[in-house]
Amino acid sequence: MAFVHRVGFVILLFMVSYCMCKRYEPTWESIDSRPIPGWYDEAKVGIFIHWGVFSVPSFGSEWFWCYWRDKKLRPYVDFMNKNYPPGFTYADFGPMFTAEFFNPKQWVDIFASSGAKYIVLTTKHHEGFTLWGSKNSWNWNAVDVGPRRDLVGELATALRSDSNLHLGLYHSLFEWFHPLFREDKANAYKTNYFPTTKALPELYDLINTYKPEVLWSDGDGNAPATYWNSTGFLAWLYNDSPVKDFVVTNDRWGLGTICNHGGYYTCADRYNPGHLLKHKWENCMTIDQKSWGYRREAVLSDYLSTADIIKTLVETVSCGGNLLVNVGPTHDGRIAPIFEERLREMGQWLKVNGEAIYNSTAWRAQNDTITPALWYTFRPQEKAIYAITLSWPSNGSIILGEPKVSQGQTQVALLGYKQLKWEPVAAGGLRVYMPQLSPSEMPCSWAWTLKLTGAS
């Protein structure tokens, strides 16, 4: 018997060693076989940060340069003609990206208070300006121009010193006006001067220098993944990089890869399918509904309310996704009070209802058949079903049509309050009697979670 135990132990060690030593080949079949590291699915909530030179004009969109110079859209042309002298170039905005009020510890405090578990910072958007001293972006980076600071490094240090947040870095593959990219594009991507001399060296630099736990790729420029050597880079990332065991990546690695290849799927900006997907996915969305970057001309109605954000969070997690909530800081490094308010209020909600969000999985039903504005999550370790209602019932009770209940076994509690009375209904499911509470007695202000145990 002892010999059998020893043999079993040796086999177990072999299996663990084999899993740890698996090598990924530079093919999509092999790359796609890599499991998503568990921490990411457990996290559920992240913060996206769009910050760059586009934060200086802070008008219209983070695509300001492209819309003004390339597409010559009238609002952008008029804005420049009205506010800047003739001959003013986009490069002239660089020294005006000052970041003098950028306080990374303050940022981390806001992000941690939001209840998020990871952040994703735009280290380089399509304009090509890098927020670290990239050797491949000479004189168009935050160390050589403007702040003259390593903004990526400062935020990474603050994050790892003062929080349990995971560090994520966004990187745009292409750049609108880089001459080497434009040359490759004119050659129908038969040449690859830009990836080999600019994009890929920057990616390796980001990984080796800052060791992010999320790498958020974007901006393929309609070029195929073979042009970007995406599978070759990802094979290195998963096999040999300093973050190989815990890094998570998305699906934006070349024309046609989105929603098909890579790590978790993003599918589209502000993607919210409303039903369960077979693959892990993320809903990246904005508090300012019209832009990812900061806009000075935004009005209050442009911003999602806290109720809107929580509704999107509940729907996303119920359908198996993570929510990445975007804010756009100002050119001088401030997170505007309206963004801070929304994030802190989301955190207040998660303090009460986080049990239904973090470490949860999708249940067999996503929303209820009888009460549509009610969404489900599940925690297998506790065998608990969570029903999150987006509106407090006006008649004092709410019907849950999906759970199968048992008298004497099923218990229902309102998170942040206590156990509630319930009764079965003839059509199946149960009617839960909600307590009569004054606003000050409510466990939270926006959506409310019922925890069911002893149900199936």
UniProtKB/TrEMBL annotation:
UniProt keywords, alphabetically: Glycoprotein, Glycosidase, Hydrolase, Signal
Residues making up the signal peptide according to the UniProt record: 1-21
GO CC terms in record: lysosome
Enzyme class: hydrolase
Limits of the Alpha-L-fucosidase C-terminal domain: 366-453
Pfam families: Alpha_L_fucos, Fucosidase_C
Known catalytic reactions: a neolactoside IV(2)-alpha-Fuc-nLc4Cer(d18:0) + H2O = a neolactoside nLc4Cer(d18:0) + L-fucose; an alpha-L-fucoside + H2O = L-fucose + an alcohol; a neolactoside IV(2)-alpha-Fuc-nLc4Cer(d18:1(4E)) + H2O = a neolactoside nLc4Cer(d18:1(4E)) + L-fucose
UniProt GO molecular function: alpha-L-fucosidase activity
Enzyme Commission no: 3.2.1.51
GO biological process: one example: glycoside catabolic process
InterPro entries hit by this protein: FUC_metazoa-typ, Fucosidase_C, GH, Glyco_hydro_29, Glyco_hydro_29_CS, Glyco_hydro_29_N, Glyco_hydro_b
Glycoside hydrolase family 29 N-terminal domain boundaries: 22-355
SMART domains found in the cross-reference section: Alpha_L_fucos
UniProt site (May be important for catalysis): 284
Recorded family membership: Belongs to the glycosyl hydrolase 29 family.
Function: Alpha-L-fucosidase is responsible for hydrolyzing the alpha-1,6-linked fucose joined to the reducing-end N-acetylglucosamine of the carbohydrate moieties of glycoproteins.
Subunit structure: Homotetramer.
Name recorded for this polypeptide: Alpha-L-fucosidase
Organism of this sequence: Clupea harengus (Atlantic herring)
